[in-house]
Amino acid sequence: MSSLQEGEETPEIESGETELEALLDDLIVDRDDHENAPAFVIRPDTVQETLGRLKEEAGYDHLSLVTAEEYPDRYESIYHLKKFDDPTDEVSIVVPTDAENPVSESAEPVFRTADWHEREAYDLVGIDYDDHPDLRRILLPETWQGHPMGRDYDQNRPQMVPLREHANPLEDDHRSESDSDTMFVNIGPHHPATHGVLHLETTLDGEQVVDVEPDIGYLHRNEEQMAQQSTYRYQIMPYPDRWDYISAGLLNEWAYARAAEDLADIEVPEYAQIIRTMGAELCRIAAHMLAVGTFALDIYGDFTAIFMYAIRDREKAQNILEDLTGQRLMFNYFRLGGVVWDLPEPREEFFEKVRSFTEELPELLEEYHDLITGNEILQMRTVGTGVLPEEVAKNYGATGPVARGSGIDYDIRRDDPYGYYDELDWEVPVEDGCDNFSRLLVRMREVEESAKIIEQCVDLLEDWPEEERNIQANVPRTLRPDDDTEIYRTVEGAKGELGVYIRADGTEKPARFKIRSPCFSNLQTLPEMSNGEYIPDMIAALGSLDIVLGEVDR
Amino acid sequence: MILQSETPLPDTLANLLGLGGFGVAGEFVASFIAAFIVGNVMLAMTGVAGPWAKRKITAKFTDRIAANRIGPAGIGTIPADAVRLLAKELIVPEGADRPAWDIAPLIVAGSAMLGFAVIPMGSGIQVADPEVGLAYVFAVASIASLGMVMAGYASNNKYSMLGALRAVAQNLAYEIPLVITGVSVVLFTGSLRMSEIVAAQQETLISLGGVAIPSWFVFVNPFAFVLFLAANIAEVGRNPFDIPEAPTEIVAGFQTEYSSVYFVLLYLGEFLHIFLGGAITAVLFLGGAAGPGPESIGFLWFVVKIWAFFLFTQWLRSAAPRLRIDQLIEVGWKGMLELSFLNLVLTALIVGVVV
Predict the structure, then answer these.
(1) Strand partners, A95
(2) Yes or no, beta carbons of B247 and A302 under 8 Å apart
């Protein structure tokens, strides 16, 4: 499928490339094309100029990912740019920097989202960004020695630090001279509303939030390095389940599968694509059910009926997924080139189960609407609070339901089709309220759309001729993609645009494996949404972002 | 027709035990025994409500089973929970303001217990029946706010402090509508004495096909009842007005730092306040201990009424989202206060013209 798409797009990219070359004529040093996009090499002191031109004049308004890597002779930052209007129109900007003194200009003044991405690059790889407003470690503790993704990093060096040297992340009350009325509160890392180990450094003025700064990294496992130490064929696949572990497993697996399959030119059989599509949408329903349930929990303040109902109905999706994959949490169901096994026997019983779930879903959602969206107190709490304007959302690289709740009509499943999505009949729900309520509505409507997709998949699978049920393509036992090929591919995860960048070096393990976590970018918008609002609204905004710390921290 | 026994419980006990001859000492002993009985009855109800009934009720609302391990329907979890809670370590936060921190739970629990002293519970159970009964019960119930502020301030914790401030703001905003609405009932009865308020509701309001509807104030003035109920829920701090605790926002508000016995006392106090709220509602609007059957089972009807109120709070807990603090204050000062005064004026007109 993928090779087909690329074939179709080639002419368009060709013409676009000449225009881009003309636009960036004086800045381009070299070409270093990726499998997915043209890539231009520029000097490290022209980053803002280049990205600025691409954003303002060529319309590349989405900085999807910043990848950083150390080579023997240089450091390299790659800015993966896209258009919100057309995510297949991509361009990469490669910024090599000196090995001795890796300083590169920051992209933060052009794209706000670069803030955290560059902090991560500094933290893990060790590139310094000039002009960056706040270049600190983001995932690792302040006291960490060295940069773990760097080449000369000693993995055996103990990182134990005496207590007195350890920067206590829980800061004391600090009152500035000018503004003595504020109060500093640590919300988290263990707090009923943070949905995991998230720490919010919050400055309050009475009940109002003056400033909030998310402190992340408590769940950091360096999943990227784990993938780099594993082989393409089998060893990487179990890890994506552990990024967004709240039932979005298959969606994550697809992110890796799509990138690796396109890199190694593997064609997935149509039958397997349909199974993948169905499984992924079941995951999306389960993930959104939990998001709606916990959002209600944040607003209602107790484990109320709506939370339990959402969990009860999510359980049905989980049971189907368990039948399909044999697992409830860490599915490990996809394989490069297909899925690990066919639908469970007897098939009729399975189809019956899936159908009864999708058929009763509209009725269940009606009940949710009665309980949540129809409730006047909930409307008082959510309409007009946690506002994230469209332009701000784009600037921060927000994707998924967060972007669609801000009126951005952007869904990878439709705009950059993969799997079987472009053959099916469904819609992308968009709400332009930009507030907590819109994000809630988008998720609830997406559940309906997912159910529609699943029904169509079941119809297709039921009629599929028995002899053509091919669940896996022929894939060599050991995969060795060509040396120096790079690819960045994204899928629509439960929380937004989930991407994987892989650079192959001709061995059976990736030389660089980089994850684009939608939650990581989405969480950055929290201060925009909650500064100046009340504490409860900040909690509601956090709930409406629907972050999973496993994916934020990776 | 007066269902309520005119004799307060201490006098009945004094007669029964022959304490009358001992003068002041006898009176004191009799009052002490009466208070002991009433206190224990209410504590027992709280004991059933807190560790068991609350769980079971919420579970029914949310499609779960809840406690089911010990005894029939898990009722045996009550002693187990009591032992568990009392056996826990009491952790005193660094920098806690000591006497205040220790006294606060006692105030919260004690203020509710004091309120029950004047409640006519039917079957002759009423410890005292002073002339200013209604004013007294409102007064002691609102002492709890003081306990909350002390708990929040003395804990040396920012979440506690926020909770305490919220508690004060909320109670100020709702105490006034609550009392004003209560006063509209007094306009009918012409007395603050609890037994007389109950007595005034025993006449038949209207006879529908042979069924006599008593003149409970819930039927006479349903508008006041709804107002009173809402203000009462806010006063006892239950959903959707559980803002001083607000688990997802400020952890547990003023009780964040409390553990073990102190936590039990605070929790006990909250449940007692729910029951006291139910008792006041029953006395003011639901005819006190009145109900079908002989007068001697009045206490049963009274228990049914306060448990109905408890059930109502748990229903809200399962179904209603929490308001934001500024919205709550707005509803209190801009909505309920006006409505309660309107209700008072209307009631005064009706009482003046009709009665």
Answers:
(1) A77
(2) yes
Task: Reduce the DSSP state of residue A62 to 3 states and report it.
Answer: strand
CA–CA distance, A546 with A548 (Å, rounded to integer): 7
Chain B positions in Cβ-Cβ contact with residue A301 (cut-off 8 Å): 239, 242, 246-249, 321-322
Beta strand pairing call for A512-516 and A497-504: antiparallel
What are the domain boundaries of chain A?
2-130, 223-553
Is B321 in the A-facing interface, judged by CB distances under 8 Å?
yes
Residue B248: which of A183, A298, A371 has the nearest Cβ? A298
Q: Which residue of B has its CA nearest to A368?
A: B319
A117/A104 Cα distance (integer angstroms):
14
Residue at token pair 């929290």: A526
User: Measured between beta carbons, which residues in chain B are less than 8 angstroms from residue A534?
Assistant: 324-326
Residues B253, B159 contacting (CB under 8 angstroms) = yes
Angle at the Cα of A456 from the Cα atoms of A252 and A290, rounded to 5 degrees: 45
- CATH code: domain A223-553 is 1.10.645.10
C-alpha–C-alpha distance, residues B278 and B288, integer Å: 10
Interface A-B: count of C-beta contacts within 8 A: 85
CB-based contact B240 A377, cutoff 8 Å: yes
User: What residues does A69 pair with on adjacent strands?
Assistant: A76
Specify the amino acid at residue B213.
I
Q: What topology does CATH give the domain A2-130?
A: Beta Polymerase; domain 2 (3.30.460)
Set of chain A residues whose Cβ sits within 8 Å of the Cβ of B249: 193, 301, 535-536, 539
- Contact criterion met (CB below 8 Å) for A119 and A138: yes
CA diameter of chain A: 77
Cα separation, B19 vs B10, whole angstroms: 10
Residues constituting chain A: 554
Instruction: Please enumerate in sequence order all residues whose Cβ is within 8 A of that of A283, keeping only pairs 6 or more positions apart, or say none.
Output: A247, A248, A249, A250, A251, A317, A321, A494
Domain boundaries, chain B: 88-354
**Is there a contact between A105 and A98 (Cβ–Cβ < 8 Å)?**
no
Q: Which letter does DSSP use for residue A240 in this model?
A: G
Q: What is the pLDDT along chain A (554 residues), one digit of tens a residue?
A: 444 444 444 444 455 677 777 777 777 777 777 778 888 888 888 888 888 888 888 888 899 999 998 888 889 899 999 888 888 888 888 888 888 888 888 888 888 899 899 999 998 898 888 888 888 888 888 778 888 888 888 888 777 776 666 655 555 555 555 656 778 888 878 888 777 888 888 888 888 888 888 888 888 988 898 999 899 888 998 999 888 888 788 999 999 999 999 888 888 998 999 999 999 999 999 999 999 888 888 887 777 788 888 888 899 999 999 999 988 888 889 988 889 888 888 888 999 999 999 998 888 888 888 888 888 888 888 888 888 898 899 999 899 999 999 989 899 988 888 888 888 888 899 988 888 999 999 999 999 999 999 999 999 888 888 888 888 888 888 888 888 888 999 999 889 899 999 998 888 889 899 999 999 999 999 998 888 888 888 888 988 888 888 889 88
Q: How far apart are CA B345 and CA B335, in angstroms?
A: 16
